[in-house]
């Protein structure tokens, strides 16, 4: 059994997890509904994983990741949040979190993320997607090769968390043009949201090599 501490201020959501996660081999050893309480509960129980919400009444959960890691010793932090902010994900991982999962991804994805964290993986699931996972990075890069140079610029800005207005300003085009480019990116990569496109690009390192051929 994997011991968990749940840090979330939504009581119904916590109750639902407490009722279902034991069926997936997890034991809930403590819960807390504020950041200070999460740190104290982790210090008391030293769980394998702390499931941490992003926002609490007393502050941002990301701000106490370091304290949680210190309090728990070997405890790993998996941020479970309704917030789909790409920069938030980057900040969480930068502070030492082992994963960042959107609550909309569902229980099956969460259970898989927990297994991944236990196995030492860094898990990112920014948004639920009905698109089947590709076999690997080779297939992902094949899809990305169909992006034009402008579409790759848009994809990079999606990874940076930029919104349509900011993208339009940087590119010197109208917001409607940006939306057209972004929709083309989603179609070519086979994803259904901007967050899914950003996650897909980061997972497969699609922007790591700017020399990658692009479509004309």
Give the tags.
elongated, Rossmann fold, two-stranded antiparallel sheet, six-stranded parallel beta sheet, 2 domains, alpha/beta, 216 residues, 10 helices, Arc Repressor Mutant, subunit A
CATH class of the largest domain: Alpha Beta
* Number of separate helices: 10
Report the helical percentage: 40-55%
Quote the distance from N terminus to C terminus. Answer: 53 Å
Q: Give me the CATH fold name of the largest domain.
A: Rossmann fold
The CATH homologous superfamily of the largest domain is termed: Response regulator
Structural class: alpha/beta
Low-confidence stretches: 128-135, 211-216
Question: What average pLDDT do the residues reach?
Answer: 85
What is the number of beta strands?
Answer: 8
Q: Cα-atom Rg, whole angstroms?
A: 19 Å
What is the name of the CATH architecture of the largest domain? 3-Layer(aba) Sandwich
Sheet with most strands: strand arrangement: 2-1-3-6-7-8
**Main sheet attributes: strand count, strand direction, barrel closure:** 6 strands, parallel
Domain tally? 2
- N-to-C series of helices and strands: EHEHEEEHEHEHEHHHHH
Strand % is 15-25%
Molecular shape: elongated
């Amino acid at each position: 059994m994997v011991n968990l501490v749940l840090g979330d201020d939504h009581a119904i959501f916590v109750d639902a997890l407490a009722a279902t996660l034991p069926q997936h081999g997890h034991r809930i050893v403590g819960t807390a509904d504020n950041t200070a309480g999460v740190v104290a509960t982790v210090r008391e129980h030293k769980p394998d994983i702390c499931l941490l919400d992003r926002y609490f009444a007393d502050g941002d959960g990301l701000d106490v990741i370091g304290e949680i890691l210190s309090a728990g010793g070997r405890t790993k932090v998996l941020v479970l949040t309704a917030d789909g902010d790409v920069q938030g994900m980057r900040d969480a991982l930068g502070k030492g979190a082992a994963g960042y999962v959107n609550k909309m991804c569902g229980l099956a994805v969460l259970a898989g993320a927990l297994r991944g964290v236990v196995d030492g993986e860094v898990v990112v699931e920014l948004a639920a997607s009905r698109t089947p996972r590709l076999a690997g990075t080779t297939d992902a890069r094949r899809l990305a090769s169909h992006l034009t140079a402008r579409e790759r610029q848009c994809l990079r800005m999606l990874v940076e968390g930029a919104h349509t207005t900011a993208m339009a300003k940087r590119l010197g085009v109208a917001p409607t043009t940006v939306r057209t480019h972004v929709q083309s990116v989603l179609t070519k990569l086979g994803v259904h949201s901007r967050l899914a496109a950003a996650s897909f690009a980061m997972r497969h390192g699609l922007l790591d090599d700017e020399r990658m051929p692009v479509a004309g």
